[in-house]
Amino acid sequence: xxLTLYNTLxxxxxxxxxxxxGHVRIYMCGPTAYDRGHIGNFRTFCAxxxxxxxxxxxxxxxxxxxNITDVDDxxxxxxxxxxxxLREYTEPYVEAFxxxxxxxxxxxxxxFPRATEHVPEMIELVRRxxxxxxxxxxxxSVYFDISKFPDYGRLAQLDPSQxxxxxxxxxxxxxxxxxxxxxxxxxxxxxxxxxxxxxDSPWGPGRPGWHLECSVLASTHVGQPFxxxxxxxxxxxxxxxxxxAQAEAxxxxxxxxxxxxxxxxxxxxxxxxxxxxxxxxxxxxxQQGYRPSAVRLLLLSAHHRKQLNFTFEGLRDATQRxxxxxxxRWRLRTHPVSADAPHSGLLGLVAGARAAFEAGLDDDLNVxxxxxALFNFVRDVHALLDRRPVLRLxxxxxxxxxxxxxxRVFGVLGLADAEAxxxxxxxxxxxEARLAExxxxxxxxxxxxxxxxxxxxxxxGVRVEDTPAGPRWKWASGA
Length: 479
Ligand code: AMP
Ligand code: ZN
What we know:
- With 479 residues, this protein is an alpha/beta fold.
- The protein is built from 15 helices and 18 strands.
- Strand 1 (4-7) and strand 2 (12-15) form a beta hairpin.
- Helix 1 (39-57) packs across helix 12 (393-410), helix 4 (119-131) packs across helix 6 and helix 9 crosses helix 11.
- The chain starts with a strand and ends with a strand.
- The chain binds adenosine monophosphate (AMP) and zinc ion.
- Adenosine monophosphate (AMP) binds at residues 29, 31-32, 40-41, 43-44, 231-232, 234-235, 264-265, 271-273.
């Protein structure tokens, strides 16, 4: 079966084939290093991880790149406010990004280039755009002339009559219907930015615009044209629209073939965002005792083209689903087996689940279908084990192998195992604090409170056992 992907460029689901047989090249817009990323950002990065892992599962080699924006209006303002250099200011946020990235079990990509490491290539693209007549210099800055690029706005399906005269003044996103010439190079130094980010160029000192960074980092690291460009839906316009214009006008060949956009994570019906003030980070959730594997399961629970509303109830539900999987694996591992027990039909369930998993993901990465394939398998095999006190060994091995195989894509069982071996310090502190509080309640003979705490722990998948040597805890799933 072949993968089809919905392509924003054509507004259709299309069969996916990489340009180079067997090798898929992906570029994804990454974080801006001015604050810690929230779980909305990580929902989008999880969608990238899903595509990456699924392509690998299907046998493709993947070259996958994500930029780190370490120079833009916000990083410059932040550095200036702290009296730090751009590098000093952005570095802790870059480190936090990798911490969260690893915590969620996202596979490290082949490259994470930083914008500031590629300014000479950006200058080169601006030079080409000037040379080819797609750009002009005004007040020491360089702008892209969108009237020279007839295809401008195709990705966003812009109506040409909504394209306005004049120039955009900042690289912050501007109003959706207000497409204007956008800045490629911002002449400087500007009074409000000081000398924080200044590079020399043939048309004077300054710094690159945000859109330019991604066009250049993509073509430098994955080549042009390449297979898939990813990012959140908020980036379709102006960011991705402008990336296409610069890259195609400057290089003279198409930029990306497939544009895969993921929908937002919401809180109370509103987009989770740094500017909305409603954001939650991965670190916040770990400090509250939630397991990274449960957060991953939640962020990967819905199809990437559907909005997902974040609630703590949903997160507790994801924790339970994770525990269902771990319990199931535990039951399989400990179920009595013998090499010559009669066949039970389990191999048919394995094949069916694998086929349903693949059919789901082939259909535009429909991950909900893939989860359903797994959870139906869990339900059916539980029923089968109820009927079979002894299972044929080879069947048990095939069922366990299926779990491992599907988890190469889902990545939650592997992550839960890693957590059991090396507990996240924030999570461990949370659990220890709850246990101490429970002991304290028991000493006061406040058994209702002690019981509440036990339930709170259970909701996170932690089971408390009272032994003669004092209370101990373990993961409820026995993993
Ligand atoms: P930023 O650091 O804001 O530039 O965003 C990095 C990535 O996260 C981009 O691909 C955004 O589209 C994406 N993103 C931002 N907010 C959300 C959200 N609430 N839900 C999902 N993705 C988001
Ligand atoms: Zn980008």
